[in-house]
UniProtKB/TrEMBL annotation:
Cross-referenced PROSITE patterns: UPF0033 (PS01148)
UPF0033 domain segment(s): 3-27
Superkingdom classification of source: Archaea
Natural source organism: Methanococcus vannielii (strain ATCC 35089 / DSM 1224 / JCM 13029 / OCM 148 / SB)
InterPro entries: TusA-like, TusA-like_sf
Official protein name in the record: SirA family protein
Length: 70
């Protein structure tokens, strides 16, 4: 599953990530992209605190991308 949180600022990227994680099955992956760079660390902290795995995370000039395994 993929979601784009471009144009939103915290806490919305984290809340949208939570909602999407709730809708996928254990073992599936969620890709989140956005343009508010501080959200990357907030999403990472949120998913790791809940026992999910960050498979990939990067920042670039346009924003960020993070892949989470539930």
């Amino acid at each position: 599953m993929e979601i784009d949180v471009t144009g939103t600022v915290c806490p919305m990227p984290v809340l949208k990530t939570k909602k999407s994680l709730d809708s996928i099955n254990f073992g599936e992956e969620l890709t989140v992209t956005g343009d508010y760079k501080p959200a990357l660390q907030n999403i990472r902290r949120f998913v790791e605190e809940r026992g999910h795995t960050v498979v990939f995370a990067e920042e670039n000039s346009k924003g960020f991308k993070i892949v989470i395994k539930k």
